[in-house]
Amino acid sequence: MFKFGTEQKIYEICGLKIGGQPGQLPTVMIGSIFYHKDKTVTDAKTGVFDKTQAEQLLKAEEDVSSTTGNPRMVDVCASWPEAFPKEIEFVASAIKGPFTIDGTTAEVRMAGAKYVKEAGLSDRVVYNSITPETRDDELAAVKDANIKAALLLALNSKNPTISGRLSVIDILIEKAQAAGVDKMLIDTTVLDVPDPGPAGKTAYLVKEKYGLPCGCGAHNAVDMWHRRKKLELDAHLTSSVVANVLPIIMGSSFMLYGPLGSATKMYPPIAVTDAYIAYTMMQQYNIRPLTNIHPLFRIFRT
User: Fold this and answer.
1) Nearest to 99 by CA among 20, 217, 13, 5
2) pTM listed for this prediction
């Protein structure tokens, strides 16, 4: 394992801590609900969904989070502005911690920002996301809503390489500051099947230079692979585990692991990875976990 030479930022968002040196804090797990083609949703445009099924998914994730010690952050997705308030209201009342507002367009995301301001939920929200192309009116909406935390997507469509991702970080920071965001979480972007490797390496380099918490949606790579070539169930699961674990080994602080329904499959391998990293950091650098609910103290107990 390794220790970053740059001081590592740790942010607290509605009681959840994220960032730091490897081994200090558990990986924050971010699972999505109400995404495109989510089976709990019956009318995406108006925000009608099966509340019982959604509650069951959230409860299952809560249970595995408690078992492993990995904190949760629910990614609330929407495709239509009219749907977002209902979905946000439901999740905000169903869970205690932070959640993201993740819309397919700027108009959807701005509708979410407007609602959380009116509902007094801004301090629980992570805006998902600010990109190099985010418009000024969207940044103004984030600032007006007093949202202080955001995912910054290191998307460089003209140069989707490690160097291309790194080249937009300063732009992202500038845009986040313009939006009044002071808790910046860098999503190092997964666009293609092999991207968890470059995304993980980008996270390492961003943390070394800026000290900011990093992560990515590594599950996207396996989902794209599966669509191109139907993977056997075991191969799909194993590939998903590897894709999610690799960026954590390279220093990432959070993982967008996919649908909430994957929680019981994705939390345990991430927790084991966290435990191995923490144990190594204790021996090599005398860096200890900052919480007594770290996976190191949870998953190996009898």
Assistant:
1) 13
2) 0.97
Contact present, 203 and 247 (Cβ < 8 Å): yes
Tokens of 171: 């732009």
CATH class label, 11-297: alpha beta
Residue count (the chain): 302
Which residues, 6+ apart, have CB-to-CB distance to 96 below 8 Å? 15
Please check whether residue 291 is in contact with residue 297, taking contact to mean a CB–CB distance below 8 angstroms. no
Residue 235 tokens, joined: 């191969």
Average confidence (pLDDT) over 210-226: 89
Domain boundaries, the chain: 11-297
Q: CA 41, CA 69: separation in Å to the nearest integer?
A: 29
Cite the DSSP H helix spans in 27-135.
Answer: 51-68, 84-94, 106-119
Q: Give the type of residue at 164.
A: G
What pLDDT sits at residue 200? 98
Name the one residue in this structure whose structure tokens are 């089976």.
39
Summarize pLDDT for 164-211 with one digit per residue, the tens: 999 999 999 999 999 999 999 999 999 998 999 999 999 999 999 999
Query: How would DSSP label each residue in 130-145?
Result: E-TT--HHHHHHHHHT
- Read off the amino acid at residue 161: T
CA dihedral 269, 127, 176, 213 (to 10 degrees): -10
Rounded Cα gap, residues 203 and 208, in angstroms: 8
Q: Is 100 left (phi over 0), alpha (psi -120 to 50) or beta?
A: beta
